[in-house]
Fold these 4 entries.
Entry 1:
Amino acid sequence: MMAIGDYLRRRGYRVVLPDLPAHGLSAGTRTSLIDCAHAVRDVAMATGPIRFAVAHSMGGLATLLAGGGSAPMPSGYPFQGYALLSVPNLFQDVTRRFGSDQGLSDLAQQDFERRLERIARRRIETFTGVQLLHDTQRPALLLHARDDAEVTFADAEAIAAACPTAEFMALDGLGHRKILYAPPVARAIGAFFDRQAQGND
């Protein structure tokens, strides 16, 4: 996130770049999406007011959960808008891909998903980017590369189609991670946040 953060800082925004639990310099070796959502909310509460959030991949689902405040969060953080890069739609697609990579049997996969449901206090089928963005009731900019091999481009198309407040920017040749360093991406995020800030001032 450093390239995007530095661009926004030079544009005049105050930028906070946290490492999620068990990521980067944060402590721990294990985490969950719910842990990450709590961390996003806690950092925003401690350093706020934070107007906008930028998130990548699974961090997008965690950030939307932190903003929307649905179960199991105690409440949401009032971000005014989101820039979501390469964000999956169906969390169940992620868990099934993980299970396949780990060689889980059908029974083990079911047990794994039931455990996740207990942690999240919701059915895994309802844990979607569409639903989490809807819960925030805030605008979002979706940025996704057509050649993303980790989160399919169809995920972004599904979220955009179901969320009328979402703007959608399709990109080519940036895969799942190069999107974080592409100057047009940073410029698009900055312009989106500027428009949102002007609309709310």
Entry 2:
Amino acid sequence: MSQPDKASALSQSDTSLVRVLEDLIDVLINRGVIQFTDLPEAAQTKLLERRETRASLTKRLQLLPTDPNDDLM
């Protein structure tokens, strides 16, 4: 495997691991093991920014209404 291929594989792995860590933090908070405010302020800011970004992307990707009572037009 070439050096650029290795770097690309590592970058993709990093992206996947970030998602795992976000989910782990959410589980720990939901179970009361830690509080969001226990995290350093910089970590809180980054997590909030990612949550907002993911929420806005989810809204953009939702092409059809999830409520069967909603009309398309």
Entry 3:
Amino acid sequence: MDRSPRLVHDARNAPPAEGRVVVIGNFDGVHRGHQTVLARAHTHQREVSVLTFEPHPAAVLGASAPARLTRLSRKVELLGRYGVELVVAQSFDARFAALAPEQFVDDVLLSALGAKVVTVGYDFRFGARRAGDIEMLRALGRARGFEVEVQEIVRDERGPLSSTRVRAALAAGDLEDARAVLGRPHAIEGVVVAGDKRGRTIGFPTANVGDAEEALPAHGVYAVVCDAAPGNTRAGASASTELSALASGVANVGLRPTVSGGGGHPSIEVHLFDLPEDRRDLYGDAIRVHFLARLREERRFPGLDALRAQIAEDAASARRITEGIAKPASGCWY
């Protein structure tokens, strides 16, 4: 199944249903471990719903929330590929955090979501001050008539398939391991914003991606493929949530030490190959950048001529890597 699930931001707004399988988790990245959990949930032959939380509970409870692998819209898109019919992105605020464990079960899982099967991770805690644990959930299930399934960590030969492992791989520039866990290349999304236009002066115009929420890979140069919204998403236009394959390219993630001195915040600049004539101007448009291979680390060059020569070499390498990847006739790359 590959369709967009219904999304609600409060369990109380969920459409009524009896006997749902409710899978609880952050589902950041919707990686192969998550996909295994969802496949098992479907063996019950019931509607599968996902209960996740926005923002990450750590941000509300005073801890540091981890960098996202997928923003909410992408998470919902991916969950739809694995047969999820309803996504509850529960607003996690002080009121919700204060629910007693029994209230969470009665008001959210049973009354709002009609759970018959509740699937959680091995370390699941719930309710105010994290007072509820697996044994309490099982006891409440026996008393209230729902089944509890506890999912153990899914592993491969290199270790757990986890969002933490993906973040570590990205930080190390190890795109192969990140892809092994995710089952697809890591991607970031954002809106193309105006830059200093220096790239076009040296023959390599770039799309500068702003507002990216996702974890960035290690600073460096990458072979990429990009999706874009089919319609213009500039201010005042109706934003599209449907993306389609646009072009391959070469991207730089980092501080641009040759032209900016290496300070400030990391930027994402993408030089796209063979853009259609009607897509040459991407300013204000939403794009998604999939990172396929790391070509080299970011470094400072003695001048623009040396930088231009290296970008030409990087672009040629990226073309060789991406030319064997068939552009989909419809839909996005991954």
Entry 4:
Amino acid sequence: MRPVTIVSLTEPGRALADRLRSLMPDAESLHRPQPFQDAIHRRFLAGRRLILLCAAGIAVRSLAPVLRDKYQDPAVLVLDEHGRFVVPILSGHEGGANEWARQVAEFLGAQAVITGAQRYTQPLLTAGVGCNRGCALESLLALLDQTLAGHGLQRGDLRALASIELKRDEPGLRQLAETLNLPIHFYPAVVLREYGDRLSRKSEIVFRETGCHGVAEAAALACAERLVDPDFRAELIIPKQKNADATLAVARIYGNRES
């Protein structure tokens, strides 16, 4: 995925840029770069995606000299300085700007203004699962069905399952994936550890046993983000649930399917 540059021109815009960097921590942030046009030209031509916190007219006039075509140009979003509207102005489909706009709008609580032909967008749900050694399929299914029913969901709403690499040889998890006809992904502890600050609760006991502070929630988040785009943040819609044998959590992220 192409790197991101956020450009702000006002003090409210700079505050908004700081908020956006919590969604995209690796993004470059420029405030009132001088000369403005040269700064964004260099980054645009280098293939960086742009978020411009300025008037759409400024963005259009500034980028016009360096536009090529929708297959080469990186995605560009324009936001008002207060973060109320998110407008993809370049590479909506091919460059992913439309979906990126939806992700940013969801994060900010803003309105995505999509003016091109639409693709069908839906939430993608992933379930992260942890379990004791030798956990039976029946126990996993009981926890899954109880959890989903309690939140108005069904098995068919899930797109994938995930767990920690340590459980790759666990028969119950393989059987669960086969029963649900879903892929199951396993992630090493070092990957799941990256999600420690986003867990509803960090467990030192789990850390001593596995090398990460929580399996179900971290696996659900990691899987959701890798289904769509690791640059975007998934959210936990069901925090860790458990029974005597297993734990389960559900994450959500938004993605496109062709209409």
